[in-house]
User: Fold this.
Amino acid sequence: MVAPIVAARAHRSNPGFSVRSIDMQQLGDTGSPVVVLDEFRVRGRPFPPHPHAGFSAVTYVFEDSESGLRSRSSVGDDVVVGPGGIVWTEAASGVIHEELPADTGRELHGLQVFVNLRSENKRAAPRVLQLENGDVPEWRSDAGDRVRVAVGSFDNVESPLVPAEPFDLLDVDLRSHVPFLLPEGRHTLVYVLDGRLRVHADGWEQTVTGGHAVALHGAGGGATFDVARPTHIVVLSGAPVHEPVLVDGPFIMNHRAQIEDAIARYRAGRMGRLAPLADASQQKAEGTP
Assistant:
């Protein structure tokens, strides 16, 4: 196994919106297929409907969130998941969507991940997958460790949410230690929300504190995560995309021509339409509850 690479998070905030972002450039290719990793807290509606294309936009709602998540898209979905739920939007060829707290006046605490798609899937039809809290399977140890399998699998526990390309998203509460596989041909990214994590893998030992992420990759080996006190982590694992990556705002493609094509399709309305939500005064005037 290659030595693990650790990246810190940076914090930025605006009225009603706070985000802690991992600098994926620090991780280089070892972060692939993840392009964006943000832990966020939001109130209200800071962002209007906006386009995405070429990747999957994933929002996982942490269990401590005051609010659930409402996710609307131009493919016709308007779904709400509560704390502990997940919405996986495979933007692919292009979709307009909007996400906001489902409960007015309450804070939404979640994780947003942009997962790159291979070129053959960048022009597929978009789709939206979701799981509510009670549908996310869990693994538990006798020591009190818990793994919520939002996407993918862990120790024969499998999520019913199946994206176009294999991926694992595990929400882990550690009390002792848990072994994790490092499958051949995959990259594993571990984000520590709070606590202090010790990673042991193929002779390497690395301590990762809250607010940092560590990227691991090997050749079919394993790693052990252990803690001296309760620690909350998220484990993301997927096959790297060995293709050129060009990020331009809400689009992730391989080449500039694909970006220009996505922009043209968006402007022409070929990614669909999503009407803005009426604000509270409009709803009252129209008699909408």
Remarks:
- Residues 256-267 form the longest helix (12 residues).
